[in-house]
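Sample entry copied in:
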Amino acid sequence: MRRHDDWSTPSFDLEPTAPAVGPFPRRPFLSAVHRLESCKLEFVESGTALLALCRSEDRLRFVGSPDLTDYHSPLGTGVADLVEALATEVPSGTVFELDSLPLEAAKPVVAGLEAAGLAVETVDDGVTAVLELPDDFGEYLRKIGKKQRHEVRRKKRRFEETVGPVRLETHHGPGWAFDEFIRLHRLAPGAKGGFMTPDREEFFRSLAATPGWRIDLLRRGDRALACSFAFSDQEGIYLYNGSYDPDWAEASPGVVLLTSLIEQSIAEGLRRFDFLKGDEEYKFRLGAEPRGLYRVRAVK
C-alpha cells in the first residue's frame, strides 16, 4: 500500500469498482472539484486499487463534496484488501465517512473495514435516477405511458407555437454556449440562482474544457432558452446540471430540452440516460428508475 498526493499516478487508469458512474471517479473531475476543497489530499493505492481521499483532521472522506459529486467509487478490483490495509494502518480515532457509493462500490468498502475489525454503519444516501434507453424514440414514448406521452407531445407543440421549431444544438468547450448556461443559471430564483458563485463558475469552466463534457441547448436568436451541462461516454449521458430562462417558462423549455436530448441520445445509440442525484418527480415521470446510493461510516 502506498499513500501520497501525486495526481499523475497511473492507477487512475484502473476501471471504477462500480459500473456506470460517469466522470466522477476520474482524474479530470476529481482534480477540478478538489480545487474547491480545503482538505488534505491523500491517494491510497495498491497494484489493483485506488482510493482518492481527503483528510480533515481525523476524518477521511472521498475527494469531492456530495453536493457536487453524484457518484463516488474506488478504482480497481482489490478495494476490500486496500481498505483493510488502510484501516489497519491509520491511528485510533480516525473516522471514515464515505458517501454517495453505489451498491457495487459500497460492498467491498464495507468488507475491508469489517476485515480490519471496525464496526461499520451503512445507511441510505439518496438515489440517482437512471433511464435505460430503448432502441427507438417511439418505444420510449410507449414505455412512459399514455399520460406522460401526451404531456411530452403537448409541451413540444406549445413550444413550437410559442418559439418555433425545436432545434437541439450540442456545443463543446468554453464559449458562447457555456456563457449562456451560466447566464441562465443565475436567472433562476432562490438557492439555485445563488449556487453559481465565481468559484463554481470556474469549476464548471474547467470541466467544459475537458473531453466528454457537453452543453446542449435550445436557442431563440442569439440567446439560449434552456441549457443542459452533461457528460457523455460510450455507456450513456450523465445530466450534471441545467438551466432555463424563467421568462419563457410557459413554453416549458426545460422539459422540451430534456425530451429532445433523450430522443437524440437514443438516435446516437446510447443505452443509458442518467439524471444523477435527486428524487425529483419529473425524472421518474420521464421513465427513470431509482439507483440507490449508500453512506459508509466507521471509527477506528
The domain at 134-270 is CATH 3.40.630.30 (Aminopeptidase).
